[in-house]
Amino acid sequence: MVTEAGAKVAATMLMPELVMVLQGGIAVIYMLAAALMVLWPRLQLTALMLVAGALLVHVMLFMLRWHGQGQLPLVTRYEDLTVDALFLVVVYLLAQWRRAELRRAAALMLAAAGVLALAALSYSQDFYPWSPALRIFWLQIHAPLNSLAMALATLCASLALLGGKAEEGRCGRLLWWVLLLWSVMVATGAYWAYLAWGRFWGWDPIESWALATALAYAVVCHLMLRPAWAGLRGCRLALLPYAMLLFTTYGLVLVRYSMHGQYLFR
Amino acid sequence: MIRLWHLLGSHQLATVLLGVLALLAMLGGTLPQTARLNPQERQGWQQEWSASSGWLDSLRLSDVFGAWWFWLVCALLLLNLVTGTLQLMMRLRGRREPGMWGVALGHGGLVLLIAGAMASAVSGFGAHLELTEGEVWSGAPNKLVVDRGHADEFSGMLRLDKVEAVVEQGSRLRDLRLAVSWQEAGGAAQAGEISSNRPLHVAGYRIYPDNTFGHSAVLERVLRDGSRRLLLVHFPLPRAQWGAMNWQVEHGRAINTGDEIRSFRLRLEGEPARLHMNVSRGAEQLFEGWLNLGDSAEVGGERMTLRQVSPWAGLYLAADRGVPWVFAGVVLAVMGFVFHLIGRRW
Q1: ipTM of the complex
Q2: Count: domains in chain A
Q3: Peptide bond preceding A17 in cis form (omega within 30 of 0)
Q4: Is the CB of B318 less than 8 angstroms away from the CB of A225?
Q5: Which domain does A66 fall in, by range?
Q6: Are B202 and B182 contacting, i.e. CB atoms less than 8 angstroms apart?
Q7: Cα B301 from chain centroid (whole Å)
């Protein structure tokens, strides 16, 4: 009845101590770069070069872990936080490349990436083979979409806090993308659940909060269609659904039992 | 009437309804929801939240997503979306504004999505079913443990032919492969395999592996009046023993024999299979000893024989007519809103 599958050996995983040093260094560089962007604008290019170098190491750590365990490193808490930090930095670099004035206004993204990369190190770096329900293509769409939506939402939050009047239009337009990406993330998760468990929605706490977050973003986006809420006022109101998004992604499994906690808390 | 028409399709109403739904979803995601708890968890919740469980129950806040007012808000949002989309399409008629047609398409997709979700809440069905290798299920509802909805009649027969669990590193389930054969009413016999994430369509149901499996013992009982009964006991195989050749599983249950309740402590071991049975009636012990395959024992006036030891597996049966509408709605909504948004500069 029971047959043994050939176990994949994590032969190319780095030593945890080395990961601690490298990822800790990356986190410090991201936070330092954020401070440079805000406090010493003349050093922005230096900060950018530091970030690009740190990102290279960050990507290398990700690839080595992927290669070592033979599955995308997306599901444990360590992996989730590390990938979120990666997306924050990539989106930051793309944004400032498109609009140089975002280097300062979006600097909170770098600070957040540093915090996440550092927080990841407080969780186990152990390798956990995926359970059958996780061995599904849609997980590999669902999880990165979560990171991408979170990165764009952080960009909006940063523009609302540091961007001032100059960035209110851009922030308003980006909020619709956040709503769309977050909603697609929820929908891909629903499709995954449908294929794995036979139901697309179970009102699990994380599902409920993810829906509440999408609805709250929809409220803000619709309010911003009205002149009284268009602009910075609406962008700052969007900090409320952003807080919900952060709680759904990082806080909820700490206080409520959720199916997602079965793997996110390793 | 015109004012009502404009109100029903307005942004203001949409904003209020979206806000109310967001609040309800937060409440339902935060407060313990009794629909998600088993009886023990429910009892524990009532003790732990003794001060507030009463009024949470009376306000239906302990079952937000099953409350009529939650679905009323969803229905109002659906009405708002239909009306708003129609109003938008009427405004756009004859105008060349492709971006706004994307908005209309997106909102049309949301209409399908919400309608599908409501249909799913009303007609969706899911139930667990445990079958032993070689066992045939012909739709008897008492074999099902229903976790949502009501079953349509299962018009066919389903047989579990073989259970194969693929594990790695000793205790991790990689895949559960269940060979099954079935025959729908009036149809030919068919065979297929159900495995993790690959459900099978049988007689209007999608059948998934439940990722539970183990060994089962079949005991034949000859009662005092000479009648014969079969007792089927499923022993879930603990994770730590998934790779072990010499497994050992335990199970305890009470059986009502008609005039008394007997307590059974059973331990099944393999390979070769043998069963340790400890049967008592209150404080009185009726039997304690080992049974090999084919062995019999006198237990409180009845004869029990170990007839068979076989693997068993859990299946999940699902049927949901709302699903195609929900996902068609998602695709349309994404297409519409992406079309609208890519036309805008950021």
Answers
A1: 0.91
A2: 2
A3: no
A4: no
A5: 14-129
A6: yes
A7: 40
